[in-house]
Amino acid sequence: MLITVSGRKTGRLYTTPVNYVCEGDTITVVSRTHRKWWRNLRGGAPVAVRVAGKDLKGVGEVVVDDKEAVAGALLALHPRYSAERAARRAQDRVLVRIKVA
């Protein structure tokens, strides 16, 4: 999936490829915390995504302090992970939830 976010300070558009999981009208993305694109979504912000050849719009929001949710999303993204591995990897990851319209 490609996600396009607008920079908070510059207003410039940034497009980034990400792994995702869809559940109904919610797209869940997990990113490493050292990456910067997700910081533009703190407090909620409009996003554009390209999923399976379709362009969609929605609102993205960062889930910062819920490592259990991050671990659960990692298990959905990587079914071969053990719960312990997902919990370890969740420590340096952040969760982004996108509600598509």
Account of the 3D structure:
The protein has two helices and seven strands; from the N terminus they run ββββββααβ. The chain has a seven-stranded antiparallel β-sheet, covered by helices on one side. The two termini are 16 Å apart. Helix 1 (67-77) packs across helix 2. It has one domain (2-100): Electron Transport, Fmn-binding Protein, Chain A (Pnp Oxidase, Chain A). It has 101 residues and is an alpha+beta fold. A hairpin with a 2-residue loop joins strand 5 and strand 6 (54-63). 19% of the residues lie in helices and 46% in strands.
Strand order of the largest sheet: 2-1-5-6-7-4-3
Mean pLDDT: 94
Mind telling me which CATH architecture this is? Roll
Q: Tell me how many strands there are.
A: 7
Give the number of helices.
2
Helix amount, in percent? 10-25%
Give helix and strand order, one letter per element, not per position: EEEEEEHHE
Largest sheet: 7 strands, antiparallel
Roughly how many Å apart are the termini?
A: 16 Å
